[in-house]
Design brief:
The chain is of the alpha/beta class. It is built from ten helices and nine strands. It folds into two domains: about 5-225, Spore Coat Polysaccharide Biosynthesis Protein SpsA, Chain A (Alpha-Beta Complex); about 235-300, no CATH class. α1 (about 15-25) runs parallel beside α2 and α9 (about 235-255) runs antiparallel to α10 (about 260-290). Its EC number is 2.4.1.289. Keywords: Glycosyltransferase, Transferase. It is an enzyme of class 2 (transferase). It comes from Clostridium formicaceticum.
């Protein structure tokens, strides 16, 4: 088996159907399998998959286990030389999978490959090539200095604005919306950290993989469309909470011993303040009926 594709679904029946069609409607020169892990959807997703995509290996959970646990369930069953984590709100464009596999085969030092991710408005999803969110990088990002000085390596170190979107580059992390990982890497560093319910698990995985000596590559020759925000109009309280909890978990796990008490205090205080502000803003948006175009990983 060359490739195992894993999709986590949670009440995104039409988006998941679109994603599966974008895979199965193409012909390939490699052997692959597709897993869909359903986190107790109530929108008919399971019946749709059984009826329209009987070739899918369907895992039905009786509760929402989150993104990390759901993916790990399929990873343990997957037989592919490479494992692809793919969001349920994406469309795989022509030759994306073939090009990614060929590039990984030609470069055995690469542990993780991410493709170019295009949003529905045609712009780049900057999460597809990122630096790690160190306190310094996060500060510049919050102050939007990356937008004022996009060509600066210092100010653009989180979303790597100084790197060309059209060139292959080694990066710190790629998005879990499309993350192709070498099976041997997973055997070495382990699966996704299940402490992360949603958000942050892709950054954490990339951090561990890079720490183990593997390269993480942004490969723009392969492309997908990401309908980011299409699956939810308003963020639920749990989504806002889990996003900020992931920030806390990542810092505590990887940076807690690297910085002094003053820096750590500022970081954790900043996360708490941001959580409070985001919660209040989200409540006002719900009352006002405005659409929220936030990250769609609540579909996990």
């Amino acid at each position: 088996m060359d490739l195992s594709i894993i999709i986590v679904n949670y009440n995104t029946i039409e988006l998941t159907k679109q994603t599966l069609h974008s895979i199965f409607d193409k012909k390939y020169n490699f052997i692959y399998e597709v897993f869909v892990v359903d986190n107790a959807s109530t929108d008919g997703s399971v019946d749709m998959i059984k009826t329209e995509f009987p070739q899918v290996q369907l895992i039905e959970n009786n509760q929402n286990l989150g993104f990390s646990k759901a993916n790990n369930l399929a990873i343990t069953l997957a037989e592919g030389k490479y494992i692809l984590l793919l969001n349920s709100d994406t469309v795989v464009l022509e030759d994306c999978l073939s090009k990614s596999l060929s590039y990984l085969d030609a470069h055995p030092e690469i542990g993780v490959l991410g493709c170019q991710v295009i949003l529905k408005n045609g712009q780049l999803d900057h999460a597809c090539k990122r630096g790690f969110p160190t306190p310094e990088a996060s500060l510049y990002y919050i102050l939007k200095l990356n937008k004022l000085f996009p060509n600066s390596k210092r100010f653009g170190q989180y979303d790597l604005t100084y790197l060309s979107d059209q060139e292959v580059n080694q990066v710190d992390a790629v998005t879990g919306a499309f993350m192709m990982v070498r099976r041997g890497v997973i055997d070495e560093v382990g699966g996704l950290d299940e402490d992360f319910f949603m958000y942050g698990e892709d950054l954490d995985w990339c951090y561990r993989i890079k720490k183990a000596g593997w390269k993480i590559i942004y490969y723009p020759e392969a492309k997908i469309i990401h309908y980011k925000g299409a699956s939810n109009k308003k963020k639920k309280v749990k989504i806002v909470y889990e996003f900020h909890r992931a920030m806390y978990l990542f810092y505590k796990k990887h940076y807690n011993e690297k910085y002094n008490a003053f820096v750590k205090g500022l970081v954790y205080m900043g996360i708490g303040i941001k959580l409070a502000i985001s919660t209040v803003v989200n409540l006002f948006k719900k009352r006002g009926g405005h659409d929220d175009q936030g990250k769609p990983k609540d579909t996990k």
